[in-house]
Design a protein that fits this description.
This protein has eight helices and no strands. It is mostly helical. The protein folds into two domains: 1-106; 121-284, no CATH class. The termini are far apart.
C-alpha cells in the first residue's frame, strides 16, 4: 500500500517538476523576448537616429554643394568679366593708338601743305600791292590799313567759296578757283598786314611767323568745328557752312596777324615775340591737330 502511494507520490512530483520547468522556460522565453524586443527598439532608435544624421549630413552636403556651385559661378563670372574688360581695353588702346597715329600723319601732311602754300605766295607782288594801297591812303594807320586789306580778302574768299559750293570741283578749277586759291588767300593776308605795319617780307622769319599765325587759328577753328551739331553739317547746307567757315578763317587770321605784328613793333629782343606767341599757342591748344 505504501509502495503504491510512494509510487504515486513519485509520479505527481515528476509532473510538478515538469510544470515548474515549463513555467521557468516560459519566463526565460519571456525575458528573452523582452530583451530581444528591447534590443530591437534600441536598434530601431539607433538606425533612425543614424538615418536622421545621414539626412542632415546629406542636406548640408547638398547646401554646401549648391553654395560651391554658386560661388564657382560667381568666380567664373568675375573672371569672364575681367577678361572681357581686358580684351576690350586692349582693343580700345590699339584703336586709340592707331587713330592717334593716323591723326598725327594727317596733321603732318596738313602742316606740310600749309608751308607749301606759304612758299607759293609771291612776296614781291604782295609788297607792291600794299605799297600801292598805302599811296592812296597815306594818312591811314596800320590798324586802318589792316581793316581795309582784310575786307578785300574777305570779299575774295567769299566769292571763291560760293563758286566752290555750287560748282563741281573740276569745273571750278576750269574757271580759275579752287581750294588752293582759298588757302593762298588765307595765308596772303598775313604778309599784307606785315607790310602794313612796316615789316619786310624777304627774311626767313617772316614765313615762320605766317605759319605760327595759321597754326593758332586752325587749332582754335578745330575746337569750334567739333562743337557743330549734326544738323549743321548735312550735305544740303554744306555749301553755306563752307562759305561761312572760309570767311571766318580769313577774318580770324587777319585779326590774329594784326595782334601779332602790333606786338612785334614793340619787340626789344629779336625773336622773342614769335617765341612767346608759339608758347602761348601751345598752352591754349595742347592738341596740335587742325
Amino acid at each position: 500500500m505504501s509502495n503504491f502511494h510512494r509510487g504515486q507520490s513519485r509520479r505527481d512530483t515528476s509532473k510538478d517538476i515538469k510544470k515548474a520547468s515549463f513555467l521557468k522556460t516560459l519566463q526565460e522565453l519571456g525575458g528573452t523576448l523582452g530583451e530581444v524586443s528591447s534590443q530591437i527598439s534600441e536598434d530601431m532608435v539607433s538606425e533612425v537616429t543614424k538615418l536622421k544624421r545621414d539626412i542632415v549630413q546629406s542636406v548640408k552636403s547638398a547646401t554646401d554643394f549648391g553654395q560651391d556651385v554658386v560661388q564657382s559661378a560667381i568666380e567664373r563670372g568675375k573672371t569672364a568679366q575681367q577678361e572681357t574688360r581686358q580684351f576690350f581695353g586692349n582693343k580700345l588702346e590699339q584703336n586709340q593708338e592707331s587713330l592717334r597715329k593716323k591723326l598725327d600723319e594727317n596733321q603732318t601732311a596738313k602742316e606740310a601743305a600749309a608751308r607749301a602754300h606759304i612758299e607759293l605766295i609771291d612776296l614781291d607782288a604782295v609788297e607792291k600791292f600794299v605799297t600801292l594801297v598805302l599811296t592812296k591812303f597815306p594818312n591811314a594807320t596800320p590798324e586802318q590799313m589792316t581793316q581795309r586789306l582784310l575786307r578785300r580778302q574777305l570779299f575774295r574768299v567769299s566769292r571763291t567759296s560760293v563758286v566752290m559750293s555750287v560748282v563741281p570741283s573740276k569745273m571750278a578749277e576750269s574757271v580759275g578757283v579752287d581750294h588752293v586759291e582759298i588757302a593762298l588767300i588765307q595765308a596772303e593776308i598775313i604778309f599784307q598786314i606785315a607790310v602794313a605795319y612796316g615789316f619786310e617780307l624777304q627774311i626767313p622769319e617772316c614765313k615762320n611767323e605766317a605759319f605760327a599765325i595759321l597754326d593758332r587759328v586752325l587749332r582754335a577753328n578745330r575746337l569750334a568745328t567739333i562743337g557743330l551739331s549734326a544738323t549743321q553739317i548735312i550735305p544740303v547746307a554744306g555749301g553755306f557752312i563752307n562759305t561761312g567757315t572760309d570767311t571766318y578763317l580769313v577774318y580770324q587770321i587777319g585779326n590774329t596777324a594784326q595782334q601779332f605784328y602790333k606786338s612785334l613793333t614793340e619787340e626789344e629782343v629779336p625773336g622773342e615775340t614769335l617765341e612767346v606767341f608759339i608758347e602761348e599757342t601751345q598752352r591754349r591748344y595742347n592738341q596740335r591737330l587742325w
